UniProtKB/TrEMBL annotation:
Organism: Citricoccus nitrophenolicus
Keyword DNA repair among record annotations: no
Taxonomic lineage of the native organism: Bacteria, Bacillati, Actinomycetota, Actinomycetes, Micrococcales
Keyword Oxidoreductase: no
PROSITE patterns in the record: 4FE4S_MOW_BIS_MGD (PS51669)
InterPro entries (UniProt xref): Asp_de-COase-like_dom_sf, MoPterin_dinucl-bd_dom, Mopterin_OxRdtase, Mopterin_OxRdtase_4Fe-4S_dom, Prok_molybdopt-oxidoreductase
Keywords of this entry: 4Fe-4S, Iron, Iron-sulfur, Metal-binding
Protein name: Molybdopterin oxidoreductase family protein
Domain 4Fe-4S Mo/W bis-MGD-type: from-to ranges: 1-62
């Protein structure tokens, strides 16, 4: 029996856990691995049911990929083969395609599920071994808008610029488009004080599990129409300014651009915002005054005030502007960088934060450096042992990368690492057609996901507790993921796969294979950057989980601050105390405008999408856990009883949804907590129930984030005879 302390494979809360590998059974059966929560500030020893069942997916299960698979021609089935043959095939096709069409013929799709080391190696592999600009990742679907907003306004993108435990003291928490009660259940413990004071305010078109936390006087639930958040927030800002409820001293000391911001919110008086947001003018005024009073009380010795955003407000065409509006509110209230509160976005994927720092984004090099900035290119090229001239420029963001497949602008081959794009990308039918048009699709995965099932070459990888690595959680803390068990003999570490491919492609820049070596390289390459990891230590990450940025000096000495739980803190737990990330040290307010809405459906219904507690993302992992699948086995659409009755739909009936993009079928779940003009679907299911058959791929022009949360749809009953 052996015990290993590590962190959960799924979301960015990164709850700590102890894995116990029991000795092999008497008949040589595989050793069972059990999971228990371990103490850690974000999770307080707790786990959600996904984390608690995660170990079932380790090791040699019958549905685990245990050998490389190849397809001999388009219509052939996948067959097992050797690593040599699989890698040779990948390399010879890549070489031929690049000879014919140039380096950009090859695309790479990465993920916020990859460890820092894998994400870093993937970006380096694309830019040096493949010399392609065409790399992006699924964080574009997740964190791109909030990241862009924080970079523009605060000058630095770290999801929470303060420890999560700072929320424990809050009297008021405004949660916009986030359903932590389902998506990060242990997070809820940090909202208890605010709830006790009646200060939890949840903004969601649904009465979500998180909105229910406001029941019985614990807070307030505001239910805007999907996409109504931007006018709502601008109107709250309008009231704060009109009623002189802002912190003038803070604004003049710590910000620029107030005039332009004030001008742009001038037209958003509450009665006007009411018409487009679906929240009453009275509630808007109440919210502004409540926030202002709480912030004022905090400065008079009271408790802090926080505004947090999640995917519900970010995954829209105006997601960046909405996140900017939320940040701007906290600036008007004089909060960021003080003890009185601030703004944060709740990062989603396990390594959603590190994943966006390591250089797998189309426009970024490691350390949040810019691929178009000459000095950044020079620094990274030198540290990689190559020249800036040899590095490609900026590539195509994820949706364009996928939606141009099969066109002149599209890549001819795609390597996918840690994403199931035929379930999770917008307009999945479009993506499927594009993948079919490729000359080569290579998928690295643990299981045969819907995307892997379409591949020409499938490479089985080790996962989570079968290998070592680091991840960066939602607070910017770098955590060690430790190896606890041995993976299937036929699977390989992704770092080895990338290094081996680089070797076979005769890359002049070699890639390291061992996580600790890659980690050492990350330290060197990010030194001096905004996301500076240079002061880190492999072992120290395991002991104290330091906060970036960590320069050499900050990395070695404990910060003078202690965490609220009394543990020593290494690195920079709280950002912006003296200055913001911009060169002038100030936060940059600016104008925010509302773009015209897209045409509504003839039936006046809007589909929004999101998550269930039991399933994770595209469901590749959690649909394989029996007790999770049993709770929610198939695609459903939540509909208000009145809306359902109008359409002759009963609870449990099968219904068809149509959008301008496609159709799907799902089972109706009646939910009186929804707005009557809104329906909700989880996106965890593939095939004819995939929510992304309906989403269009409309993009936020600032972040290129797709609009997942607002699609005009019609809803119809289907008879059993029509439904096979
Ligand atoms: N169980 C589970 N947990 C997860 C994940 C998972 O797949 N399953 N994924 C992880 C990842 S990668 C992420 S990004 C996070 C996401 O975590 P969340 O952001 O909490 O997740 P969502 O369910 O996508 O959206 C949150 C809420 O936004 C609401 N919403 C929809 N449209 C709107 C709108 O227009 N305005 C407002 N105000 N609200 C709206 C939805 O009703 C939903 O309740 O969760 C992480 N944790
Ligand atoms: N309609 C709608 N669509 C959405 C969203 C929404 O709210 N609504 N949310 C979006 C968001 S926020 C996100 S984050 C995306 C997520 O959606 P995807 O990008 O599809 O992410 P996952 O489903 O987590 O896919 C991860 C895959 O990687 C595999 N995997 C796990 N670890 C590793 C590893 O170390 N290496 C490799 N190679 N593979 C690994 C898993 O088995 C799984 O098949 O979906 C987006 N799509
Ligand atoms: S909340 Fe997130 S990190 Fe914690 S156990 Fe659940 S999935 Fe894992
Ligand atoms: Mo996400």
């Amino acid at each position: 029996m052996s015990e290993t302390r590590t962190h959960c494979p799924y979301c960015a809360l990164q709850c700590a856990m102890t894995l116990t590998a029991h000795d092999a059974g008497p008949l040589g059966s595989a050793p069972a691995v059990t999971v228990a929560g371990a103490s850690f500030p974000t999770s307080g020893g707790r786990l959600c049911r996904k984390g608690a069942t995660a170990a079932q997916l380790l090791g040699d299960r019958p549905d685990r990929l245990t050998a490389p698979l190849v397809r001999d021609h388009r219509d052939a089935d996948l067959r097992e083969t050797s690593w040599d043959e699989a890698l040779d095939r990948v390399v010879s096709r890549i070489t031929a395609l690049q000879r014919r069409h140039g380096p950009d013929a090859i695309g790479v799709f990465g993920s916020g599920s990859l460890t820092n080391e894998k994400a870093y190696s993937l970006g380096k592999f694309a830019r040096t071994a493949l010399r392609t600009s065409r790399i992006d990742y699924n964080g574009r679907f997740c964190m791109a808008s909030a990241a862009r907003a924080a970079t523009e306004v605060l000058g630095l993108d770290r999801g929470l610029p303060f420890p999560l435990t700072d929320l424990d003291a809050a009297c008021t928490v405004l949660l916009l488009g986030s359903n932590v009660a389902d998506t990060m259940p242990p997070f809820v413990q940090h909202l208890q004080k605010a709830r006790g004071l009646g200060g939890l305010i949840v903004v969601d078109p649904r009465r979500s599990a998180t909105a229910h936390l406001t029941d019985d006087g614990a807070g307030h639930h505001l239910a805007p129409a999907p996409g109504g958040d931007l006018p709502l927030l601008l109107s709250v800002a309008h009231v704060l300014l009109a009623e002189s409820l802002v912190d003038d001293d803070y604004l003049s000391r710590r910000t620029t651009g107030l005039g332009a911001f004030r001008h742009s919110v001038g037209e958003w008086w509450p009665e006007r915002a009411q018409a487009v947001s679906g929240v009453s003018a009275t509630r808007i005024r109440w919210l502004a005054r409540h926030l202002a009073a709480a912030a004022r009380a905090s400065k008079a010795g009271g408790d802090p005030v926080f505004i947090l955003t999640g995917r519900g407000v970010e995954q829209h065409r105006d997601g960046t502007d909405t996140a900017k509006a939320a940040i701007s509110l906290t600036l008007l209230l004089g909060l960021p960088g003080t003890r009185h509160g601030g703004y944060g976005t709740i990062t989603g994927q396990g390594n959603g934060q590190g994943g966006r720092e390591m250089g797998q984004k189309a426009d970024q090099l490691p350390g949040l450096r810019s691929i178009t900035d000459p000095a950044d290119r020079e620094t990274v090229a030198r540290r990689w042992g190559t020249t800036a001239d040899a590095l490609p420029g900026a590539g195509l963001p994820a949706t364009q990368l996928l939606h141009t497949l099969g066109t002149d602008r599209g890549v001819k081959a795609l390597l996918v690492h840690g994403a199931n794009v035929v379930v999770s990308a917008p307009d999945v039918r479009h993506v499927e057609r594009g993948l079919r048009a490729l000359d080569l699709l290579v998928v690295c995965d643990v299981f045969l996901s819907e995307t892997a099932a379409m591949a020409d070459v499938v490479l089985p990888v080790l996962q989570w507790a079968e290998e070592d690595g680091t991840l960066t959680n939602l607070e910017g803390r770098i955590l060690r993921r430790r190896r606890a068990v041995t993976g299937p003999a036929g699977a390989r570490s992704e770092l080895w796969i990338l290094a081996e491919l680089a070797r076979r492609l005769d890359s002049p820049v070699p890639l390291a294979e061992e996580p600790e070596e890659v980690f050492a390289e990350i330290r060197r390459v990010t030194a001096g950057s905004r996301a500076d990891y240079s002061g880190l230590d492999w072992e120290r990450c395991a002991d104290v989980a330091p906060y970036w940025p960590l320069t050499q000096t900050r990395g070695t000495e404990p910060s003078t601050e202690l965490s609220t739980t009394g543990e020593p803190v290494i690195g920079t737990p709280r950002l912006f105390a003296e200055r913001f990330g911009h060169a002038d040290g100030r936060a940059h307010l600016g104008p925010i405008t509302v773009r015209p809405a897209q045409p509504a459906s003839a039936h006046g219904l809007t589909l929004t999408t999101g998550r269930l507690m039991e399933h994770y993302q595209s469901g590749t992992q959690t649909r394989r856990v029996r007790e999770l699948l049993a709770v929610h086995p198939e695609a459903t659409v939540s509909v208000h009883p009145a809306t359902a009755a109008e359409r002759g739909l009963e609870d449990g009936a099968r219904a068809e949804l149509r959008s301008a993009t496609g159709t799907l079928r799902a089972r109706v779940v009646l939910d009186a907590g929804l707005r009557t003009d809104t329906v909700f679907m989880p996106f965890h299911f593939g095939g004819t129930g995939a929510a992304n058959r309906l989403t269009a791929g409309l993009l936020d022009p600032l972040s290129q984030m797709p609009e997942f949360k607002s699609t005009p749809v019609d809803l119809h009953p289907i008879s059993a005879a029509d439904d096979e």
